[in-house]
Amino acid sequence: MTGKGGTGKTTVAAALSLALASEGRRVLLVEVEERQGIAQLFETEALPYQERKIASAPGGGEVHALAIDAELAMLDYLDMFYKLGRAGRALKKLGAIDFATTVAPGLRDVLLTGKVCEAVRRKDKAGWPVYDAVVLDAPPTGRITRFLNVNDEVAGLARMGPIHNQAQTVMRVMKSPQTAVHLVTLLEEMPVQETMDGVAELRSAGLPVGAVIVNMVRPVLLEDAALAQVTDLPAGGSGGGVGKRRTAVAKALSQAGLGGARRGGVAERLVDPLLTQAYEHAERVVLEREQRAEIGGLGLPVRELELIGEGVDLGGLYRLADSLRKQAVPGFGGAFAKDGARGKSAAHPDEDTDDADVDGPDAGGTAADAEGDGPDADRAAADADAHPDEDADTGDEV
Ligand SMILES: Nc1ncnc2c1ncn2[C@@H]1O[C@H](COP(=O)(O)OP(=O)(O)O)[C@@H](O)[C@H]1O
Ligand SMILES: [Mg+2]
Questions:
Q1: Which domain holds residue 114?
Q2: Model confidence over 341-380: pLDDT tens digits?
Q3: Which residues line ligand 1 (CB under 6 A)?
Q4: To bridge 346 with a disulfide, which of 58, 108, 373, 377 should be the other Cys (CB 3.0-4.6 Å)?
Q5: At 107, which CATH number?
């Protein structure tokens, strides 16, 4: 999940995790940026660098969360490649890791993406994926492509050997249909522009783009005819037709019991402030329509989440999750996508044991929302059938 900062990236990632966790699924929600945004949202104590269950979803599913610490991920990495458990700790003392994590931001991204990919690929003893889906609260739109693609550079630098193989594994996951990069935006010029640019960048890097989630959508309070009337009635205007309409509004207000419609009467004094509000509302609606049209031009599935007036608490989060579930977001997995990755890949869990890659604690890649293929993929498909209303709008499925 990416998006311009402040558009609700963390909130939507969390809502998506809850939505995906319904019907008994197990989802991992990962944070790599600002620490503890997830803990705050779920109203739990700070997350350690350890996966832990933070929420239950309706129907028995679970959301687990992980806040990845780049420094600890580095120790994992060293441990894995060089069996440097103790030497790694010595390095830490020397400040080498400080250097690596702060001075080489590219390296930091390699570690973070590696950890996420490891979670995506992790299997239990029977060979089934541990998580049905992994949702990443990823870096913002401006940095997302570089972040997800960092292993491409690494694979180019290390031409062979375990690091090369590891980087290639990560890129394979990132570019596979297992991954979908979703973009959160508001119906405002700047975030929409960032979304357009972000999608273009992701596409040219060959990264799979998922859906655009328009967040904090406010209701339209006036019908089209009223909107048109308001917009050609400039606030504070008078004379001619405008004057007549102002009088009509004052009369209507008076009839509604708001006082006298005469000049200086209560109803008459309400006309200007109300018209100003209506005008501003209409202006916003027109602007939002333009932004919607821009987004529509991307040819991606678009979903909308309402603005929750009182702010997003835990209850609000479940409401947003419910809304996502009802909108049957394509590529969001399981019952959300009848022809999605899960349905298609109900293959044997060991199908990829033949790759020679290193699969250590950090063997993974970055996935902005990668779904595991699992023993219950068939069940998910069955679920989709059991809820025909949930995938009614399959017209724009990817
Ligand atoms: N649909 C929504 N309705 C109301 N408030 C929202 C909604 N989505 C996000 N917010 C609020 O917007 C603020 C920014 O959200 P956050 O998820 O932290 O954004 P980001 O991760 O993109 O910086 C938070 O205060 C959050 O509660
Ligand atoms: Mg955030």
A1: 2-218+307-391
A2: 333 333 344 444 434 343 333 333 344 444 444 444 333 3
A3: 3, 5-11, 37, 215-216, 305, 307-308, 311-312, 320
A4: 377
A5: 3.40.50.300
